[in-house]
Design a protein that fits this description.
The protein is mainly α and 350 residues long. 65% of the residues lie in helices and 0% in strands. Helix 1 runs antiparallel to helix 17, helix 5 crosses helix 6 and helix 10 runs antiparallel to helix 11.
């Protein structure tokens, strides 16, 4: 399924991934915590209005994008994962824009980091939930830049980078393993040639195989969800409803019940959706992710980053891009990430 991608194609995929994450966040936010049985007419009209250029509204981004941009900027400037720099950027970004929708638990971590002057950037995250750590999806939602920057690294090296980035705020195995799964999904999409036939069962099987080794030590639940997704395709049940996906895979703020859902949304967008007449697979991905309800901005953002990494920037409707706050800055950052990743690869090969 993987193949050599040209430099221009790879750049398009970097840009698509970052833009896809932003679009999912911005367009999903108005529906956050809606039930999966939300009015299909409302959602259809919402997308129809956007895709035909009928809306002049600019949709703001949330904490998801705030933290994703902090990760990307840190990678560009440090040329590696630097936990202390990441922690400082997370905290500075929060204090500069505290009303972007941050959860109260991560705010507690930010306060503790600032009060201790970042002496141990992992300690506040360790202390969350009586010492068990958080397994929310806040680590997974921001991880796409690490997948891009480290796309030529081994999975083991990438896993270490993800854990270091994640454990600042999410120290529970389900939290950082969810970020690892999301990172691996983005990397797999990035390495796949969208002009060739795509096998969803093989895509999921490869992720499942990689997660099996990771979960042996932590006993986290991701392989079970990946098996459920694989069964949907093996049994030709692609027509399963958004409500059924919410019940089967979840749609809440926990990583175990949102990361697999985002991956499924990417796969679902490849085929027509009966209630949403749209030929564009990226738009279908975002539509379906939002239709599941629950934590719609994060699930759609994660699904959008995978889809964008697969299809590339040219496959993302400009009408959706133009509705997102900070669109040009995000695109510019994608260029910088690409340039730094190429330099990093040259250094390794040299």
């Amino acid at each position: 399924m993987t193949s050599e991608i040209s430099n221009s194609g790879l750049l398009s995929k970097f840009r698509g991934c970052m833009m896809g994450s932003l679009i999912g966040d911005c367009l999903g936010a108005p529906f956050e915590f809606d039930p999966p049985c939300m009015s299909k007419i409302i959602l259809e009209n919402y997308f129809s209005n956007l895709l035909t250029g009928g809306s002049i509204k600019m949709f703001p981004y949330t904490d998801d994008t705030c933290m994703t941009l902090s990760v990307a900027r840190s990678l560009v400037e440090n040329k590696k994962v630097n936990p202390k720099d990441l922690a400082k950027r997370f905290v500075d970004e929060y204090y500069s824009q505290p009303k972007r929708g941050y959860g109260m638990h991560v705010i507690d971590v930010f306060h503790a980091l600032k009060e201790t002057n970042f002496e141990d950037v992992f300690l506040p995250g360790k202390m969350q939930f009586n010492g068990s750590g958080s397994y929310g999806n806040g680590a997974a939602m921001r991880i796409a830049p690490i997948a891009l920057f480290g796309h030529n690294k081994t999975d083991e090296s990438l896993q270490r980078d993800v854990e270091e980035c994640s454990r600042i705020t999410h120290n529970h195995p389900n939290g950082y393993n969810g970020a690892i799964l999301q990172c691996l999904a983005v990397k797999a999409a990035l390495k796949s040639d969208s002009s060739k036939e795509f096998d969803p069962v093989d895509f999921i099987s490869q992720l499942e195989k990689k997660m099996e080794a990771i979960e042996m030590k932590d006993n986290s639940p991701y392989c079970e969800s990946l098996k459920k997704i694989k069964e949907i395709y093996l049994q030709d049940k692609e027509g399963i409803s958004a409500k059924e996906i919410a019940e089967c895979l979840g749609h809440d703020i926990s990583a175990p019940k949102s990361v697999p859902t985002a991956i499924y949304s990417f796969l679902r967008g490849m085929n027509p959706i009966s209630e949403f007449e749209c030929l564009n697979p990226f738009a279908r991905t975002i539509y379906f992710a939002i239709s599941i309800g629950g934590d719609t901005d994060t699930i759609a953002g994660m699904a959008g980053s995978i889809a964008g990494a697969y299809y590339g920037i040219d496959a993302i409707p400009t009408e959706l891009q133009e509705r997102c706050e900070f669109k040009d800055e995000v695109d510019n950052l994608a260029y910088k990430l690409y340039d730094e990743s190429q330099e990093s690869t040259s250094c390794v090969l040299g």
